[in-house]
Amino acid sequence: QARWPFYVWDEATGEVRWMCSWDTTEAEVDSFAAAVADAVGAGPALSSPAGPRVAAS
Fold it and tell me: EC number(s) of the enzyme (predicted)?
């Protein structure tokens, strides 16, 4: 939480709430995702359960 503050919803289950501002950049999201991947040991191969990112048209 030092770099990216977030809400802990349920300490017993480890449930947290992540959110960002509408003006958050893609680079900031990528940096956050990389930090989460490193924290859980997934490395750079972490992917979204929603599927691949779709480029804005």
Answer: 4.1.2.48
For the chain, state the CA radius of gyration.
13
Domain spans of the chain, in order of start: 7-42
CB atoms within 10 A of CB 37: 15
Tokens of 25: 């950049």
Query: pTM for the complete prediction?
Result: 0.56
Beta-bridge partner residues of 15? 10
pLDDT tens, residue by residue, 7-50: 899 989 989 888 889 999 999 999 988 888 888 886 555 455 55
23 in helix, strand or coil? Answer: coil
